[in-house]
Write a structure and sequence with these properties.
By secondary structure, the chain is an alpha+beta fold. It contains 11 helices and 14 strands. The chain folds into 4 domains: about 5-50, no CATH class; about 65-105, no CATH class; about 140-265, GIY-YIG endonuclease, CATH 3.40.1440; about 270-335, Winged helix-like DNA-binding domain superfamily/Winged helix DNA-binding domain (Arc Repressor Mutant, subunit A). The longest helix has 19 residues, at about 110-125.
Length: about 350
């Protein structure tokens, strides 16, 4: 008959066998404490020892995470959340965006155009619209009543991601608007949307659009340019050649390409620009992701140098945003000193 032994810790009676008790120091003996209590006591002792141990310099504190790319220790808000598995990604937001941009730039232009075309086809098939277009290319935007106007049909003859100089021509009067863009087709979509909304930056073009209608305007690609460094120079040549700034010849608000010189500003616009200039010159106290602080005399210049969004930093300074922007925090010097 098997002997029943009482555990010295839990006071439970268990068979005196090696299944329930560890061997003792002397041969043929068993310990007085059962295996379950022995494991629990050892675990509690280990946790107490770890709590008393001094923290290492490279140990990550609670609420923080070390980026697998830049090796910076940042708060958890600087890491994207994977909602499906409810955990954070290994790289911080800045490193993740940089890696995605590198992968995007590594693809050839033909691959980008093919992806845009497939996405467009899926979107239009979901809406039940026709994909027929001349030269095998696709038209873009559709009006609210899903009727394609003459102006929208003119946009579809240029693929995406084509940089160059373009013109918006009034077929009734012959007047033109000349512009340039890194993606001409996307810029045409922006022009069309703003003209339909009635808030285009060229008042003369907006008035002509409202008077003659969208069917009287045609979008033309004047010249495709692969070297983007000379884009403004070529645009200036086309503005001078087509008299796009002439009194009775064009819709451009400025005679200089890439500038708003000569465009009259209202008093409200001047006041807003003056307030922005004063706000930009106000000193700010910026906290870097590694914890060091710096007094910045001009927030706009600092954001351009560090690749940050000025609007997000101003929201942090005004208290409208609590989460840090790419690891940076910002506050007005007057608020910190006060």
């Amino acid at each position: 008959m098997t002997e029943i032994r009482t555990c010295s810790t839990c006071r439970e009676g268990k068979p005196a066998t090696g299944q329930h008790f560890h061997p003792g120091k002397r041969p043929g003996t068993l310990r007085m404490q059962c295996k379950v209590c022995t494991r629990r006591v050892q675990r509690e002792w280990y946790y107490r020892k770890q709590a008393l141990k001094p923290r290492r310099a490279d140990e990550v504190p609670e609420g923080h995470k070390r980026c697998s790319s830049c090796a910076l220790m940042l708060p958890l808000d600087n890491f994207y959340l994977l909602r499906g598995v409810n955990r954070r990604v290994s790289a911080c937001r800045s490193c993740t965006r940089r890696k995605l941009k590198e992968n995007y730039d590594a693809l050839p232009k033909e691959e980008h155009q093919a992806r845009n075309r497939k996405a467009y086809e899926r979107r239009k098939q979901k809406q039940g619209l026709s994909l027929d277009a001349p030269d095998g290319l696709l038209h873009i935007a559709v009006t609210r009543d899903e009727v394609k106007t003459a102006a929208l049909k003119a946009i579809g003859h240029v693929p995406f991601r084509i940089s160059g100089v373009y013109a918006i021509r009034n077929l009734k009067t012959g007047q033109v608007y000349v512009g340039s863009a890194h993606d001409v087709r996307s810029r045409w979509g922006t022009h069309f949307w703003r003209l339909n909304q009635g808030n285009h930056h060229s008042p003369r073009l907006q008035r002509a659009w409202n008077r003659d209608g969208a069917e009287c305007f045609q979008f033309d690609l004047l010249e495709a340019i692969s070297d983007r460094s000379i884009l403004i120079l070529v645009e200036q040549a086309w503005i001078d050649f087509l008299h796009a700034f002439a009194v009775h010849g064009g819709y451009n608000v400025s005679a200089t390409a890439g500038s708003t010189a000569g465009r009259p500003s209202s008093e409200k616009q001047k006041q807003v620009a003056r307030q922005r200039a004063l706000a930009s010159a106000r000193p700010y106290r910026v906290t870097w992701p590694d914890g060091r602080t710096e007094t910045v005399p001009n927030l706009r210049v600092f954001c351009e140098q560090q690749g940050l969004h000025q609007s997000a930093m101003r929201k942090l300074a005004a208290g409208k945003q609590t989460a840090p922007h790419r690891g940076f925090r910002c506050a007005r010097v007057s608020d910190v000193s006060g």
